[in-house]
Automatic annotation (TrEMBL):
<feature type="transmembrane region" description="Helical">
    <location>
        <begin position="6"/>
        <end position="29"/>
    </location>
</feature>
<feature type="transmembrane region" description="Helical">
    <location>
        <begin position="136"/>
        <end position="156"/>
    </location>
</feature>
<protein>
    <submittedName>
        <fullName>Phosphatase PAP2 family protein</fullName>
    </submittedName>
</protein>
<dbReference type="InterPro" id="IPR036938">
    <property type="entry name" value="PAP2/HPO_sf"/>
</dbReference>
<keyword id="KW-0472">Membrane</keyword>
<dbReference type="GO" id="GO:0016020">
    <property type="term" value="C:membrane"/>
</dbReference>
<dbReference type="Pfam" id="PF14378">
    <property type="entry name" value="PAP2_3"/>
</dbReference>
<dbReference type="InterPro" id="IPR000326">
    <property type="entry name" value="PAP2/HPO"/>
</dbReference>
<feature type="transmembrane region" description="Helical">
    <location>
        <begin position="216"/>
        <end position="236"/>
    </location>
</feature>
<feature type="domain" description="Phosphatidic acid phosphatase type 2/haloperoxidase">
    <location>
        <begin position="101"/>
        <end position="257"/>
    </location>
</feature>
<feature type="transmembrane region" description="Helical">
    <location>
        <begin position="102"/>
        <end position="124"/>
    </location>
</feature>
<dbReference type="InterPro" id="IPR026841">
    <property type="entry name" value="Aur1/Ipt1"/>
</dbReference>
<keyword id="KW-1133">Transmembrane helix</keyword>
<keyword id="KW-0812">Transmembrane</keyword>
<feature type="transmembrane region" description="Helical">
    <location>
        <begin position="41"/>
        <end position="62"/>
    </location>
</feature>
């Protein structure tokens, strides 16, 4: 089986998840009446889409050439990470079962792609462009931080650093997955875990905008938690990488929230939503009148 066949499997599985989630989370009624929202949202977030495209292109270049640059200017922190947490990942793998491995392998590949792409489509269908805009900005920050860290730090995952203790469970159960993962990452780029940071970013924004799609919030939290654990269970990331990923997610959402509040294109498409400062002034005025 080649790369195209593996990619087709992933796309097919994600499309099935999309179909179910659109029906359960978004609902047929919104999908039937969302054409106007799609057009206005695309206009409102066009600048963010452009920046994200540039950042993703830069990540592609770094993935191909950055390893050599990293060895010239970066710091190898693998030993420090191992000194901090020891054999935690090996202990976690001691609880491995075929069922758990199948589940975590599924969420690491299929669940991750679904979690990152579905909210883009769901928020695009909503009347308010702010959730989509903040999600795009948060993705930009995630990939931007990842780009810098992957050049500044050299870090091998536990499966590479101590293969006698940690097994590559994803590749032993689904060897073809390596054809896909090697296209999007290198074995020295594990700090921080972008699987964790991006997944948790989606969950945090699902909580922030839970009034938009209430059913999406628990689904995203469950998937984000599972994906974060899967990165360690499968021997790909250290716990330290996951903790760093959580920090990147918090930073990304904070930056996105500020950007969403102050963005003129988004605010012009969302006249009912006021900047934070204006809401405080109006609230004080109402309090003064009611007193």
């Amino acid at each position: 089986m080649g790369l195209l066949e593996v990619a087709a499997q992933v796309v097919g599985g994600v499309l099935v998840l999309f179909a179910v989630a659109l029906a359960v989370v978004v609902g047929p009624a919104r999908m039937r009446t969302a054409s106007d929202a799609v057009r206005s949202n695309l206009r409102a977030v066009a600048s963010a889409v452009g920046v994200l495209a540039v950042v993703l292109a830069a990540n592609g270049v770094v993935r191909d050439l950055g390893v050599e640059v990293s060895w010239l200017i970066g710091v190898n922190i693998t030993g420090y990470i191992h000194a901090i947490e020891g054999e935690f990942v090996a202990v976690l793998q001691s609880f491995a079962t075929p069922a758990l491995t199948a589940y975590f392998g599924f969420v690491y590949v299929f669940g991750y792609v679904f979690l990152l792409t579905f909210p883009l489509a769901a928020y695009l269908l909503h009347d308010d462009p702010r959730p989509l805009y903040e999600l795009l900005v948060a993705y930009i920050v995630n990939y931007g931080v990842g780009l810098v860290c992957y050049v500044a730090f050299i870090a091998y995952g536990p499966r590479n650093f101590m293969p006698e203790l940690v097994e590559s469970l994803l590749y032993t159960t689904w060897p073809e997955a390596q054809l896909l993962t090697t296209e999007v990452n290198r074995n020295t780029n594990v700090f921080p875990s972008l699987h964790t940071s991006l997944s948790v970013t989606v969950a945090l924004l699902a909580h922030r905008f839970r009034h938009v799609y209430p059913r999406w919030y628990p689904i995203s939290v469950a998937l984000a938690a599972s994906i974060s654990v899967s990165t360690m269970y499968l021997g790909i990331h250290w716990a330290t990488d996951v903790v760093a990923g959580l920090a990147v997610a918090g930073l990304s959402v904070s930056v996105a929230r500020r950007a969403g509040t102050g963005s003129a294109p988004v605010m012009s498409q969302c006249p009912k939503t006021q900047p934070v400062g204006r809401r405080w002034v109006d609230g004080l005025r109402r309090w003064w009148r009611d007193d």
